[in-house]
Amino acid sequence: MADALGRVQALAESPIVARVAAAFAEAGHELALVGGPVRDAILGRSVHDLDFTTDARPDQILAVLEPISAAHWDIGREFGTIGARVRVGDLVDTVEVTTYRADSYDGVTRKPVVAFGDSLKGDLRRRDFTVNAMALRVPEVELVDPAGGIEDLLAGVLRTPVEPEHSFGDDPLRMMRAVRFASQLGFEVEGATLDAIAERAGSLEIVSAERVQDELNKLLRTDSPRRGLRLMVDTGLAALVLPEIPALRLEVDEHHHHKDVYEHSLTVLDQAIDYEHSRHPGAEPDLVLRLAALLHDIGKPATRRLEPGGAVTFYHHDVVGAKLAKKRLLALKYDRQTIASVYRLIELHLRFFGYTDAVWSDSAVRRYVRDAGDELERLHILVRADVTTRNRRKADRLGFAYDDLEHRIAVLAEEEELNAVRPDLDGNRIQEVLGLRPGREVGEAYRWLLELRLDEGPLGEEEAERRLRAWWAERAARSDVPSGGDGQG
């Protein structure tokens, strides 16, 4: 405990905090660091965000911050929040200062009713969990902990500062925050709090899809989202947010056996994160990869067939799953690029497994790269992560096969600039060679040349022109259309 309090003291005395604290004190306002910075300092974790709360109203906050900041913004003004970039010597940090709050949902609308409060303890009571309901008054350095957050922090427990039914009624999104913090901090959710989540899971429907998506993203970006995802499934939250995940717990009868698709999907997510860290150490979490890993098998329930002899098949679950993922991500208001990337990864995640049955031709390797496009690196990770068999020999065989495929891709890429596979002739040259105007036939010729490029590799411009003219003449002969472009000479 002494070490924890020492870290809190050091936080209060850090240059940026001390500068902001002095400015508010000079203006006659209260100020306290609140929530995450205090929690993380006590835990000995890095403090990245400096969140303050104050009795000052937004206009007053802005007046205090403006003289000491290199930049400031008021995008959160309606919620009482003003942000700024504060500089002290060579140190620059972002701070957010929010007026004491006392807002809640009215139980009907999808947005909270904003109301400003007038006391620090009142503000802390409306926060989500006791471990986030601690504040550090500055500059006087006084720890304010009305709900026993330190004890819960040291015990690794998530509990609401007030009755959980009341807390989740004020803001149902706190239920999603509970599962996220369980993963982020590695904490257990206290029993009564967990029961309240299960009882009130349905109330999450009044929260906007954008806010739900934001919490889901924060969960998936943690180092170990499995704990939070399990809680989502067990409490019923997943039935509202990602119903495809609990649907993976397929019923298995005594005659038909297959691996648990739900557990498999969580393991694939774990392994994808491990590969992500090993291949790109220190990089930001890859949300697209993690969404694809979690959702890659959601087409299995719809395609499951029980075959004679005890076999279970899931034909075309890759294509079905890609479509289901697109529909779900659209409902959660994800952006187009994220949806397109996740769709492509799920659609392609099974293709590699044909590589172990017969060695691919160079043409097949080129098509694999062409179809993956910008998602090739993510596809490498997803395919490797999808191997969860306990059969060591099988796992090694698949691993060695993918090593070989990646090696072949690298060799071809070096020889042929494979990452930008294009025909030897562009659209303008095709028009010149065949005497065409812009239109459908140019696109048809371009696609034919691209297939030729994928099949045989680079041909060179002269050979490509010769082959194109021969193909065009043959095409014209088949269709009785003169080889002069649009059939008009």
Task: Give an overview of the whole structure.
The structure is a single chain. The protein is an alpha+beta fold. It folds into 4 domains: 155 residues, Beta Polymerase, domain 2 (2-Layer Sandwich), CATH 3.30.460.10; 85 residues, Orthogonal Bundle (Hydrophobic Seed Protein), CATH 1.10.110; 173 residues, Hypothetical protein af1432; 53 residues, no CATH class. Helix content is 53%, strand content 9%. It has 23 helices and 11 strands. A 7-stranded mixed sheet has the order 3-4-5-2-1-6-7. Strands 8-9 form a two-stranded parallel ribbon. A two-stranded antiparallel sheet has the order 10-11. Helix 7 crosses helix 9, helix 13 crosses helix 19 and helix 14 packs across helix 17. The longest helix is centred in the C-terminal third of the chain and has 25 residues. The protein starts with a helix and ends in a 10-residue tail after the last helix. It is an enzyme of class 2 (transferase). Its cofactor is Mg(2+). GO terms for molecular function: CCA tRNA nucleotidyltransferase activity; metal ion binding; nucleotide binding; tRNA binding.
The CATH topology annotation of the largest domain reads as Hypothetical protein af1432
Strand order of the largest sheet: 3-4-5-2-1-6-7
Share of helix among residues? Answer: 40-55%
**Poorly predicted runs:** 253-257, 483-489
What CATH architecture of the largest domain do you see? Answer: Orthogonal Bundle
Count of individual domains: 4
Cofactor: Mg(2+)
Protein name: tRNA nucleotidyltransferase
Keywords: Magnesium, Metal-binding, Nucleotide-binding, Nucleotidyltransferase, Transferase, tRNA processing
Enzyme class: transferase
